[in-house]
Amino acid sequence: MADPWAASLRADPRPWLLDPARPAVRQLALRWLEDRPADDPEVREAQAAATALPPVASILDAQDPAGWWVKPGPGYAPKYTGTVWSLIILEQLGAAPRDPRITAACEYVLAHAQTASGGLGCSGSHLADRPPPPSSVLHCLNGNLLRSLIAFGWLEDPRVAAAIDWQASAILGGPGAPRFYASGTSGPVFACGVNEGLPCAWGAVKALRGFAAIPEDRRTPAVAAAIEAGVALLLAIDPATAGYPAGWGGVISRGWFKLGFPSGYVADILQVGEVLAELGRARDPRLSGLVDRVLAKQDETGRWRNEYAYRGRLWTDVDEPGEPSPWVTLRACSFLRAALG
Fold first, then answer.
1. Fold (topology level) of 4-340
2. Which stretches in the chain have pLDDT values below 50?
3. pTM for the complete prediction?
4. Where do the structural domains in the chain lie, given as residue ranges?
5. Which of 73, 151, 184, 269 has the fewest other C-beta atoms within 10 Å?
């Protein structure tokens, strides 16, 4: 193991992650751990194979030809098989952007989940002809959907641009910013009614993941400023402690410390490291405690378990119960590679 990050592990899991028997994991491992481009023949081959197998195939097979899952409408419900969640999870699984079913899903979400404010709203309604209200836009959902839509090639769509503008403007606040609906919608510097009006670090992580998908040379000054606001929040304390503002009694969610896959509105401490790494902060010394905590969770084979697996709530479970998770292991290795070199 010549690479410094791999030398820090108890064993090398890369052959396991690159096993063709798990093509969805393999195609992401080729990109994240070997720097292969998206159009690399081996990446494309693995991605095509993944489309025909669970868990990618399980989600796509359940889709209505019109582009929605479970029921028409804005698609937030049910968790985690409704339309918006299916799209978010497909992005995390590395589904092929060119698949016509992905195209249909992206178009459906933009046509049915966008609010008059430009943000993408949280609504479980079955009414396909009624957009969600502006009060339903949350930094977490809007960021998750931006991440998915941009990854699937929709950055140029003006509806995506409007959702990006909502996110940046809502974070920065000031004149012209979206109204902060204290009942739930995230407001300036990630204030959220669900967190008793305090900044929500989960929302910050998801918003930054959406912004991180935008090429650096395409980020507006407002997006760049919003990114810095999010980075400042996440690094204001030791991310390994997850001691972020917590409303309703100040109890830190145990979910922060359970490394999992896939990821919904909940973030874990590893995802803090991942998004900061994507934004070029992987070597920040304030991440040293997080590096140690992630390393401590590996087993003797250099693998990690899925501690937050949404078991029984997805179209199909992504990991075997009680077994090491290739998905969480890939996440950990990608972050450690960025942080340790």
1. Glycosyltransferase (1.50.10)
2. none
3. 0.97
4. 4-340
5. 184
